[in-house]
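Lay summary. Proteins are chains of building blocks that fold into shapes, and those shapes determine what they do. In this project we predict the shape from the chain. Here is one chain we studied, written as its sequence of building blocks.
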Amino acid sequence: MQWNHLLAGSLLLILASLTGAEYLGTTISTDGVVILTGSDQDGNGSVASRIMAIGTSELSRIIGDEGGIGMTVQGRGPLLFSDHTTGTTPTQLGQACVFLTPDRINADSRANLDASGILSSGIYAMTRVPGRGISGETLVNGSGIMLLRSGSDGNRTTRSTGFVSGNMTLHDLTRY
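And here is the predicted shape, written in a compact code that computers can read:
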């Protein structure tokens, strides 16, 4: 009789996974190991995130809220995380470089945000909204190493890279 319940539940889970979700929320508390990945994509951009926590940890994740992803993890053990976001930014037609061809002046530029790191313990929180007008925010409070990168290509090209190690309190906000 229990096999019937297991089979029916498995069938319902398989059917639910085929429909696609508008919104996905996950909350996990554990004293073991948790590995969680997620992604969101539309015609204007994408976001992918991965996190691994070892030891006592609490994790909360939301995918699909306003086309983005949000994640918070607090752990007393090691935390490994990585996320990558791409999107388009509308071109501002005011001034243009004289070396750009007309098709480049009217084209949208591409932007990306990356964050990755390893914390011995602490808190990592991030939000990413891909698409037109890409934005992201990263909050870190802990001890470890962290790499942040962002940039955009187009009429106005920008690049930023940051590396932090040791005890840190970090707040990074980027909008293109």
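What the prediction tells us: Strands lie at 24-30, 33-42, 45-54, 57-63, 69-75, 79-89, 109-129, 131-132, 135-153, 158-175.
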